[in-house]
Write a sequence for this structure.
């Protein structure tokens, strides 16, 4: 039976947190991971507007994957954009086009909100991720460098 792609709801908070944690391990920032299930619940579902939104791949009550995003309301194009923060598929579900389904759902969300772009970053060592995004038709933006400033 195929997974169902849908927007996350509050009852997904525990599983969503678990997938976020798994991504932090995969991307090697688990030592800085400060999210809890309660933070997911409060900031993603009880706060209005929420700090983030999520689309999930649901396999009869078990989350097989997740995509976390938020809106950038103002851009130079005078249209909002979506920033894709996290995309993660449970290893046992990889190779089933779930990531593609989640990305297509995000594209539809962007179109519904008149967004001009979907933006994201990918770790330079994540060759599989880069190939996946390129296969979807995304292109690497070589015009800008990514910077961070810890405070």
């Amino acid at each position: 039976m195929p997974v169902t792609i849908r927007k996350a709801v509050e009852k997904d908070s525990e599983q969503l947190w678990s997938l976020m944690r798994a991504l932090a391990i995969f991307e090697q920032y688990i030592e800085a991971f400060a999210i809890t299930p309660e933070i997911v619940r409060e900031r993603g579902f009880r706060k209005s507007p929420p700090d983030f939104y999520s689309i999930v791949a649901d396999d009869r009550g078990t989350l097989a994957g997740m995509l976390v995003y938020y809106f950038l309301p103002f851009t130079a194009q005078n249209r909002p954009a979506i920033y894709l923060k996290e995309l993660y598929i449970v290893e046992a579900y990889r190779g089933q086009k779930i990531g593609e389904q989640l990305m297509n759902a995000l594209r539809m969300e962007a179109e519904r909100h008149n967004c001009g772009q979907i933006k994201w970053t990918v770790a330079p060592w994540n060759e599989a991720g880069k190939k996946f995004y390129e296969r979807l038709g995304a292109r690497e933006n070589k015009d800008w460098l990514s910077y961070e400033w810890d405070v």
